[in-house]
């Protein structure tokens, strides 16, 4: 069985599909031209341009599981804004709660009772008793690192190769031929000084890295879901990680920003994990900006120093005027209370399984040795006979031209596919018809490829 398809065939189809994409979207093209006069890359965040190689879509509206662009094309959305719209677009309880709260005042810099409900619900879901809020997962991770440094008196942070935890200095570092280098431009020259990276699923490397007791915090997704597609942990990985972090006095944080879609409490709850901290963001408030981090009472002690304290320890550097604002809290209460229910997770898991079954059938019928992802609502493919275990293995199987072809081919057939880190994922609003549409378009593509 083959793992690679003919690159010349991929290139020819890509050229045809790119031309069709552009021809059918004159309004998006005109808006992009106007955007380029006032925004770098013509879009509100220049990096948005780097997620795709086809021209950007401009969006008119969205409802449920469907996006509608300014040229009138409707898409079944399996990217769901890099999983931040897992609730689907415009769920009625969130629309109602947010409309009510914005009229009453979107920010007071004083708490509302929604914050108590939301913190309590996150505690129930993730099993950590105390919570704080930010505006995004990135800022939750930034705060958690500072808290860990304060709690341990150590400076370094350990990540696993292939990670993504947001855009902040400590994490924008990668392994290149065994050496740590800045991932992008514009970072301080010594950005690698406080970061340690070891391969995922490598407990021996982890043991060696923590042995000198210099690492304040290990932060990881329970399964890596970003630059590497999907890396699942070996059976003993999380138990080993917890044991060695405890033995070396290192704090352990799970970043559930993506993995929260597997059920209430994310993989922490599904797999019975026992971290010191958990971070989340994206879909907890149905796409209204909110990040959160939960912690044990031991960790929280560094935040609970009173204002008129009598010790000489400085306050931990956490903060942000709009963090944990009443509008975000109202959205999170409605989202978790009325949309992200047990039934909703069961529905998305059923659809995710259907999508995985369908992909597996198409791939097997074409005689391709590709592996289907099975991750609750999320599916996808590794272009390899087995799921990779490390970032190095994952990168070796990442066929970028093929990925790009899949995306534009599906877009031309009313399917908005996921970027590499997001699935395809079925939202709470997704339907069997959406899954059918995905599988039909993907089946047509594979039919043309082999
Ligand atoms: N952590 C993880 C695991 C993520 O996948 C992401 C975004 N892809 C982030 C953090 C950062 O989220 P945000 O950009 O919303 O701050």
From TrEMBL:
UniProt keyword terms in alphabetical order: Aminotransferase, Pyridoxal phosphate, Transferase
SUPFAM superfamilies attached to this UniProt entry: PLP-dependent transferases
Report whether Calcium shows up as a keyword of the record: no
Q: Which InterPro entries match?
A: Aminotrans_3 (IPR005814), PyrdxlP-dep_Trfase (IPR015424), PyrdxlP-dep_Trfase_major (IPR015421), PyrdxlP-dep_Trfase_small (IPR015422)
- Spell out the coiled coil positions from the record: none
- Which one of the record's GO molecular function terms can you name? transaminase activity
Which cofactors, by name? pyridoxal 5'-phosphate
Instruction: Decide whether keyword Transmembrane helix is in the record.
Output: no
User: Taxonomically, which superkingdom?
Assistant: Bacteria
Q: Which family does it belong to?
A: Belongs to the class-III pyridoxal-phosphate-dependent aminotransferase family.
Q: What is this protein called?
A: Aminotransferase class III-fold pyridoxal phosphate-dependent enzyme
Write down the species: Nocardioides islandensis
């Amino acid at each position: 069985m083959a793992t690679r398809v003919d690159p010349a065939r991929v290139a020819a189809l890509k050229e045809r599909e790119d031309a069709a994409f552009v021809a059918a979207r004159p309004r998006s093209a005109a808006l992009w031209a106007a955007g380029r006069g006032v925004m770098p890359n013509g879009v509100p965040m220049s990096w948005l341009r780097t997620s795709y190689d086809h021209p950007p879509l401009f969006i008119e509206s969205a409802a449920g599981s469907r996006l509608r662009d300014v040229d009138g094309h409707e898409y079944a959305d399996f990217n769901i804004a890099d999983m931040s719209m897992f609730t689907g677009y415009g769920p009625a309880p969130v629309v109602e709660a947010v409309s009510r709260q914005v009229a009453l005042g979107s920010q007071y810099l004083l708490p509302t009772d929604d914050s108590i409900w939301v913190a309590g619900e996150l505690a129930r879901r993730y099993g950590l008793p105390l919570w704080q809020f930010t505006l995004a997962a990135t800022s939750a991770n930034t705060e958690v690192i500072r808290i860990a440094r304060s709690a341990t008196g150590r400076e370094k942070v350990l990540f696993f190769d292939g990670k993504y935890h947001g855009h902040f200095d400590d994490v924008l570092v990668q392994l290149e031929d065994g050496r740590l280098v800045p991932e992008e431009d514009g970072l301080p020259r010594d950005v690698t000084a406080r970061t340690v990276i070891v391969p995922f699923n490598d407990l021996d490397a982890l043991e060696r890295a923590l042995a000198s007791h210099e690492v304040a915090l290990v932060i990881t997704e329970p399964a890596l879901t970003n630059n590497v597609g999907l890396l699942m942990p070996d059976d003993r990985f999380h138990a080993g990680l917890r044991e060695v972090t405890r033995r070396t006095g290192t704090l352990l944080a799970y970043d559930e920003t993506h993995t929260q879609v597997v059920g209430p409490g994310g993989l922490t709850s599904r797999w019975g994990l026992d971290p010191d901290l958990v971070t989340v963001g994206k879909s907890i408030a149905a796409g209204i900006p909110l990040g959160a981090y939960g912690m044990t009472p031991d960790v929280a002690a560094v935040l609970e120093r009173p204002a008129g304290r009598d010790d000489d320890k400085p306050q931990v550097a956490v903060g942000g005027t709009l963090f944990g604002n009443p509008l975000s809290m109202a959205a999170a209460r409605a989202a978790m209370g009325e949309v992200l229910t047990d039934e909703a997770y069961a529905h998305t898991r059923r659809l995710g399984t259907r999508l995985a079954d369908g992909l597996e059938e198409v791939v097997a019928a074409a005689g391709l040795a590709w592996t289907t992802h099975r991750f609750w609502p999320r599916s996808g493919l590794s272009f390899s006979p087995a799921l990779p275990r490390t970032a190095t293995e994952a990168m070796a199987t990442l066929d970028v031209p093929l990925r790009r072809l899949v995306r534009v081919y599906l877009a031309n057939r009313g399917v908005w596919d996921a970027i590499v880190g997001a699935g395809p994922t079925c939202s709470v609003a997704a339907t069997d018809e959406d899954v059918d549409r995905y599988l039909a378009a993907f089946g047509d593509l594979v039919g043309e490829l082999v």
